[in-house]
Write a structure and sequence with these properties.
With about 140 residues, the protein is mainly beta. Helices cover about 5% and strands about 35% of the residues. It contains one helix and ten strands; from the N terminus they run βββαβββββββ. The strands form three sheets. A five-stranded mixed β-sheet has the order 8-9-4-3-10. A three-stranded antiparallel β-sheet has the order 1-2-5, with no helix packed on it. A two-stranded antiparallel sheet has the order 6-7.
């Protein structure tokens, strides 16, 4: 893939990790579970669920660190600045891409909100996207 093929690019705060996306951008989903809130430092974790063939590492893949819990839940981040980074889904066919790591302000649709049973009271949801107490059905 050449740089001209990308509809969006993104990366970490220090610039060591860079990636590009092709095709129509996936909608952003918000997870409100306690693990995602901790790893994002906010009230939810906003990610795009991107087909693997529409994702490319541009630089810094060797600069990634992974932290995994015994349950299998994991997070990937830049070893230098700690920013969340894209990571493969458990089956490897897709990538979870942190929406906040995208450059600029791409127009993103909202897929929905999951794990609302864990959402803190101080988080307000101001859209009409689908909502699920646990994971999406």
């Amino acid at each position: 893939m050449s740089g001209a093929d990308f509809v969006a690019t993104g990366g970490c705060l220090c610039g060591a990790v860079r990636f590009g996306l092709t095709g129509k951008l996936a909608p952003v989903g918000f997870c409100h579970c306690s693990k995602c809130r901790r790893v994002s430092g906010t009230g939810s974790n906003a990610v795009l669920n991107v087909r693997r063939d529409r994702f490319a590492w541009l630089s810094g893949e060797d600069n990634l660190k992974r932290y995994a819990l015994p349950s299998g839940w994991s997070t990937v981040f830049c070893a230098d600045c700690g920013c969340p980074a894209p990571q493969p889904t458990p089956d490897g066919g897709r990538m979870f891409v942190p929406a906040g790591a995208l450059d600029g302000d791409p127009a993103l649709d909202i897929a929905g909100h999951i794990h609302l049973g864990s959402k803190p009271a101080w988080v307000a949801i101001c859209d009409d996207a689908p909502r699920f107490e646990e994971g999406a059905a």
